[in-house]
Amino acid sequence: MAPSEFSKDAVRLDAFEKRKALPEDYRAAAALSFKENFLKHIPLPAEKGAVISAYMPFNAELDVKPLMIHLIGLGYRIVIPHVVNNAASLEFRTWTPETPVYRNLHGIEESEQHYSDVLLPELMIVPLIAFDAAGNRMGYGSGQFDRTFAHLNDVRQKFFAVGVAFEAQRRDRVPTDMYDYPMHCIVTDTHFYNREESRA
To answer: Domains in the chain, please, with CATH?
Structure first.
């Protein structure tokens, strides 16, 4: 790949277009196969009631709601990102299928503040635009998740970050810089990538 084709913008656009092109029936099947793949490979927190962050699917992202509902059934508390004006990092608010939601300025669903609580997650399910087997992640380019990871480290909140995407979004290598936070591992609808194993 030529240098211009390996720029963040070029890789992001290519992976985004591939994601949007996936057929609807494939997406529905992928949501269920991802759920089983996640439960097979990811150790869940030992404490019931532990906080797990996920996300509301947007812009053709892999649908993690079947997994979210399953985790609630197991006794875990699910939170989803909430964008706070003038804040560098994301806030995480509780969510259940009954929680009232609204769409923020980007069109992403968030929990209504009067019907949800702010909690810090210990297991994070993070959406991706593109990724590689070494755990490198590319998002939309806003840097909100990377700043959030840095904030959690600053407040000494231990967390385990699992990147989530369709297998079609994988690249041999994605461009990164010093501010990009790698995932501990990545789960797709067909594969599991462990960052530590990739370095062995």
So the answer is: 3-198 (3.40.50.10420)
On whether the CB atoms of residues 39 and 187 are closer than 8 A, the answer is: no
Structure tokens at 85: 């004006």
- For residue 156, give the amino acid letter: R
Angstrom distance (rounded) from CA 200 to CA 105: 43
Average pLDDT of the segment spanning 39-62: 95
177 is written with which tokens? 């810089």
Our measurement of the distance from residue 13's CA atom to the centroid of its chain's CA atoms, rounded to an integer in Å, reads 18
Give the burial string for 126-137 (b: 16+ CB within 10 Å, else e): bbbbbbbbbbbb
Each residue's pLDDT tens digit, 51-90: 999 999 999 999 999 999 999 999 999 999 998 876 678 9
In sequence order, what DSSP letters do the residues of 27-76 get, joined into one string? HHHHHHHHHHHHHHHSPPPSSTT-EEE-----TT----HHHHHHHHHTTP
* pTM exceeding the 0.85 threshold for the entire prediction: yes
